Amino acid sequence: MAAPALCVQCGTQLAPTLLACPSCQRLVYSEELKRLATTAEQAAHAGDWTAALGGWRQALDLLPPDSSQHQIISARIAELSRVVDGGSSADATRHGSSKLAKGTAGASVVGALLLKFKFALVFVLTKAKLLLLGLTKGGTLFSMLLSAGAYWTMWGWKFAVGVVLSIYVHEMGHVQALQRYGIKATAPMFIPGIGAVIRLKQYPANPREDARVGLAGPLWGLGAALAAYAAYLATGLGVWGAIAHFGGWVNLFNLTPVWQLDGARGFRALTQAQRWGAVAVIALAWVVTKEGLLLLVLVAAAAAAGWGRAPQERDQPALLQYGFLVGVLSLLTRIGVPTVPR
């Protein structure tokens, strides 16, 4: 969106990066903010919380960070985000539409939405479209083919295709979670030898959102690994077992709570006590499986629990997801890797 050259209220010349007039403090994008608020309000009326979140996030990008409107919209995003997570709409409506009307245009009362656990059939029916849609992105498909070619030279084409598809499913888990929260991001881009990356155009509003987005990748990656393992049991073909083992190992590695790995994003939402709980789960998984990778995850988790800054509010879903992933992925790494024909 092109920024106006002059303030429509006082005529002051505006730099392209300004969000408020330095003279009269009028919001530079006030008309666009009103439009976005109306769009978000209509989406909330329709019960489309994702679209409402997307509208408010766009509005947030056009507001000065130190403005009262920015604070109001940030609070609104946090409230709607909890509704998307399956919380009551009571939090989302507690402050009422009158407060938001003071900021940009107001938002209506948000109804309740409880997100329930989806069984495998529902998952396939609702998520297959997203997986296919991702393959229509030229950059994603082209970089996938490049990665598959690189892996082909090392492991043969069957395993290479399985590895790339496993990584793709993992990344689309992040994409689905980002879309759910109305967060804009690029399509996955594959980098041979590293995996794939998604560049965020907007960012999660809080550690809880960040944890859901971060752990969505390993959750979807686990689904891909389990599907490969099921194919291995059904067919006895070694390539499926190798793909399942790879999926278990690489997604478990991603749970290491360091840097920008998915495990670090999950840990940011955990209190210190919860982090020590996660450490105990990792230690138990190592005792059961003797998977060497778990020692790396354990050391990093203990360091994060002992010295990292932790929130005060408990996030039980994040802890349950993290512990579940550690346990099941650790078991998948125990799959014997058969010799796969190239």
Keywords:
342 residues, mainly alpha, Methane Monooxygenase Hydroxylase, Chain G, domain 1, 2 domains, 2% strand
Descriptive report:
The protein is mainly α and 342 residues long. It has two domains: 30-103, Methane Monooxygenase Hydroxylase, Chain G, domain 1 (Up-down Bundle), CATH 1.20.58; 120-332, no CATH class. The protein has helices at 30-45, 49-61, 68-84, 90-93, 96-103, 120-134, 138-155, 157-180, 207-235, 238-254, 262-267, 272-289, 293-307, 316-332; strands at residues 189-191, 195-197. The protein has a two-stranded antiparallel sheet. β1 and β2 form a beta hairpin. The chain is globular. 41% of the residues are buried. The model is unreliable at 89-121 (pLDDT under 50).
Helices and strands, in order, run as HHHHHHHHEEHHHHHH
Q: What is the end-to-end distance?
A: 51 Å
Spatially, the strands of the biggest sheet line up as: 1-2
How many domains make up the coordinates? Answer: 2
Poorly predicted runs of 5 or more residues: 89-121
How would you characterize the largest beta sheet?
2 strands, antiparallel
DSSP strand (E) fraction? under 5%
Spatial extent as radius of gyration? 23 Å
What is the tally of helical segments?
14
Overall outline:
globular
Number of strands: 2
Give the oligomeric state of the chains in this entry, treating copies of one chain as homo and distinct chains as hetero.
Answer: single chain
Mean pLDDT: 87
Indicate the topology.
Elements: H1 30-45, H2 49-61, H3 68-84, H4 90-93, H5 96-103, H6 120-134, H7 138-155, H8 157-180, E1 189-191, E2 195-197, H9 207-235, H10 238-254, H11 262-267, H12 272-289, H13 293-307, H14 316-332
Helix pairs in contact: 1-2, 2-3, 3-5, 6-8, 7-8, 8-9, 8-10, 9-10, 9-14, 10-14, 12-13, 12-14
